[in-house]
Every structure is written in structure tokens, then in C-alpha cells.
Write a structure and sequence with these properties.
Helices cover 9% and strands 31% of the residues. By secondary structure, it is mainly beta. A four-stranded antiparallel sheet has the order 1-2-3-4, covered by helices on one side.
């Protein structure tokens, strides 16, 4: 297992942390995490905030890790298998607006932001326009209010 962090130049690919396990690599983009805690509830032996690093994909079967990563609504957590296979997108594409205004989108997506266009499978997009991480929600606007 490794905990590699890549720091991009400004306006390039966002910072990702990579965690390698048997058969799977989990990536984490901290700026996109909205703390839904799907990972921690779904597989606490892999996603444990009290440990450093906090992600240990080798502590569960790769298929189970992938299943729990797909629950992350923001897309902050993603995975690829060691053979290079990335997460398959949902089909058909779905869009759901939350009560607080975010758009939860799943499917074969291309999202354009400050870093250019990115392929995505899961995103939570800002619905209020106040996010500092456009087009992704970061709970800095009215959506952060209960």
C-alpha cells in the first residue's frame, strides 16, 4: 500500500491522493469530499479516519472496496483495478437535485471546470453558484445551511 500525493501546477489536474491495495487503487480528491461518510459506514476497516493513511484498500477484497467507493456521491473517491480498468459509468445517466440545491449526477460524464474537461462517473455539482471549486459543490454557499 502507498499513500502518494501529486501536487499539480495551478489550473491543472486537481490534487489526488492514491492508495494502492491488492487488485485496486483508490484515489481521493480532498477538495471534492463533502463528508457524506458513505465510505466510513460502508467499509470501516478500509476507510478509517483515525489511521494515517486513512485509506487501506488492501484490508478488504477489491470488489468490496470498489462497491463502497461507488457510493461516494461527490466522486471524491474513485478507483481503478490494477489491470487499468476504471470505474464503469452508470447507464443511463441520472440527475437528481437535492433539497439544498446540489445536482447529483451519475453516468458517462464530461465535466468542464478550471482544470479543463474531465471524464467523470459521479459528481455533485454546485446548484447555488457560490462554490469555490466550480462546478463541483464545496458546501460554501446556501447549500451548507441545514
Amino acid at each position: 500500500m502507498s499513500d502518494r500525493t501529486s501536487e499539480p501546477a495551478p489550473d491543472e489536474t486537481p490534487r489526488l491522493k492514491e492508495y494502492e491495495g491488492e487488485g485496486i487503487t483508490v484515489t481521493f480528491e480532498p477538495r471534492r469530499c463533502l463528508h457524506a461518510a458513505e465510505c466510513v459506514r460502508g467499509l470501516p476497516e478500509v476507510f478509517d479516519l483515525s489511521r494515517r493513511p486513512w485509506v487501506h484498500p488492501g484490508d478488504a477484497p477489491a470488489e468490496r472496496v470498489a462497491e463502497v467507493v461507488r457510493r461516494c456521491p461527490s466522486g471524491a473517491l474513485q478507483y481503478r483495478t490494477t489491470d487499468g480498468t476504471a470505474e464503469p459509468p452508470d447507464s443511463p445517466t441520472t440527475v437528481h437535485r437535492t433539497d439544498s440545491g446540489q445536482l447529483v449526477v451519475r453516468g458517462d460524464l464530461r465535466v468542464r471546470g478550471a482544470a479543463g474537461e474531465r471524464p467523470e462517473t459521479r459528481v455533485m455539482l454546485c446548484g447555488c453558484g457560490a462554490s469555490g471549486n466550480q462546478p463541483y459543490c464545496d458546501h460554501s454557499g446556501p447549500c451548507a445551511e441545514p
